[in-house]
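[INFO] parsing input record for Aldehyde dehydrogenase family protein
[DEBUG] input buffer:
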Amino acid sequence: MTTITTTDPATGVRRTLDLEETDAAGLASAVSSATAATAELQALGRSGRARLLEAIADALDARREDIVATADAETALGAVRLNGELTRTGYQLRFFAEVLREGSYLEAVIDHAGDTPMGPRPDLRRMLVPIGPVAVYAASNFPLAFSVPGGDTAAALAAGAGVVVKAHPAHPATSALVASVIAEVTDPLVGRAVSVVYGYAAGIDLVQAPGIRAASFTGSPGGGRALAELAANRPSPIPFYGELGSINPVLVSPAAAAARGESIAEGLAASIVQGGGQFCTKPGIALVPVGPAGDALVGALSASVAHVGAKPALTAGMASAYDAGLDELTAVPGAALVSRGSASSTIGSTTPALVEFVGDELPTRLAEECFGPVAVVVRYRDDEHAARLASALPGTLTATLFIEPGDAGVPMARVAVAERAGRILYDQYPTGVAVAWAQNHGGPWPSTDSVHTSVGATSIRRYLRPVAWQNAPAAELPPELRDGPVDLPRRVDGVMVLP
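[DEBUG] output buffer:
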């Protein structure tokens, strides 16, 4: 088997780890463990799983210093960013403990037997149950919050599903460390509820493993499409929830550009370069009006970007892809590089950049994500022109609108931008996704499933499926569907009943 190495992006130093790529036997063992853990997690019940999630969060907090140091040595994201990410990771776990205790996520419904205009109705009871063992493909850009202990894992464990995580090659040591911390909590209670597998082959085989019932992925369009196709072509296809990149358009109305163009530019620049531009919610394209107000905004944005230095990319491959992508953007007719940050001699670093485009139609390449600290400013003449440009954009996680109170400008463009997004922001910046009941993190393609979110309370819905019981004896029913007082909201004979 192949020994795994890890590289510090800040120095280029490579270390050999005491880890090997997962072979077929190791993958089968991981899936078997997730299957067994699924039964044990369900047996714990909602309150038991809630306590388990809180215990995992506490254990991660107790190892904070080691986890942050290990992650920083693999990502060069810095202690401040990584401490914040670990705090978010613990918050997600504790948040899902609250979701479990509240219970409405089960969508429990009871329709007692009775007469209807269509004739007699049998006793019917319905709720959501765990879909089964889940595959999680860790993201490169969040080694904690969207990785082994991240939101997908938290949601799956909350649902009662065991998890097999495909570690991202950018941070294998971090993945192994947090997996060991989770194991210390879970193994004594429910067995190996979270297993980690390593290597390209294991990732391909995982989505095809017969025991896996759903998969979630955050990463590149190429990798995600390949895995989605494998998931769909199984003898029994499974749901594949993928986030495959996002352009996150920003639309600035003429009135907003005139009233506060400089402040918009300052905040937009910070959002573009945050975390080295390696956020899935990075604003990748901004629609800005032509004219003096738009010129001033673009000038302020260019100046802000120019003052930002280069940062190490998560991997050398990502740095190369960024450089190639920037070359492609600036080669588009009508596009020009208008600002470049301070370069670095460090191999594998990325330098912030701003590209401006002027033209009647939006070229396809400018509507595609370039992963890193670059954005494209597209100038529009009027509402019709802005709407036409926006109509060339693909689906996106977010859309941001900067408008003034009572602003009637660019109404068609607003609609064209907003109808492509899963989250619409007003006068705020998209980098930052709150973990909340009302959150939605997803959208039309290139999200592979626009129905579900990957962040927030309802992300648990991805790992559940509905089951109805007809004329079942009380002893055969889940506790949440039996008559009598219960500790969760239910709809009984068409009426919502609170606990």
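[INFO] Residues 74 and 87 are 19 Å apart (CA to CA).
[INFO] shutting down worker
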